[in-house]
Amino acid sequence: DLPESDRRMLIQALATYRRVVISISGKDTDTGAYSDFLTQLGGSIPFVYTIFTSYRAMQMIEPALSKASAVVLGHSAQADVQQVVAGVLFGRESAQGKLSMSIGEVFRSGEGCMMTPGMTSGRVIPEDYEMNSNVLRDIDAVVTGGIDAGAYPGCQVVVMKDGQTI
Question: What is the pLDDT of residues 20-58, one digit of tens each?
Fold first, then answer.
């Protein structure tokens, strides 16, 4: 447990990086102790969370995860799982991630994505193009809400900047 002054220093140090990967492992029950701190981190820089425990840990840090650029659920801290997740993050491994059940309010059943090795879109983050991931996430929430409410049968939003799909 870090004193508040050390937390602020760590947050300032992390703000100098373009991307930060935070890995969660250990006992699910221990994860909740970090919720407030992890929530403080979100905002100005893109965070990627890799979760090497069960989905229960995600529920405990849901406010922080809602601000993340990406979340990868590995379900296990075994070495081979960690290697595959690292490969996914660097675009060397494929991943097929559709949730079979909802996890809290942020991650709904059926959500997820497919990644194949060599995908370039996985390396592009809005902040690389002076855009804000949180704003794009809000746009996505409006579109999803409209579809869920039956306001329109479907919708697709494509965001591009400088010729690059974001």
Answer: 899 998 887 788 888 888 888 866 678 899 999 888 888
What's the CA gap between 90 and 71, in Å, rounded? 14
Torsion of CA 20, 57, 88, 108, to 10 degrees: -110
* H or E stretch at 112: strand 112-115
Q: Are residues 27 and 74 in the same domain?
A: yes
SS (H, E, C) 71-110: EEECCCCCHHHHHHHHHHHCCCCCEEEECCCCECCCECCC
Same domain, yes or no: 16 and 95: yes
Can you give the residue range of the structural domain that contains 34?
4-119
pTM over 0.90, yes/no: no
> What pLDDT, on the 0 to 100 scale, is given for residue 132?
85
* 134 and 114 within one domain: no
* Domains in the chain, number: 2
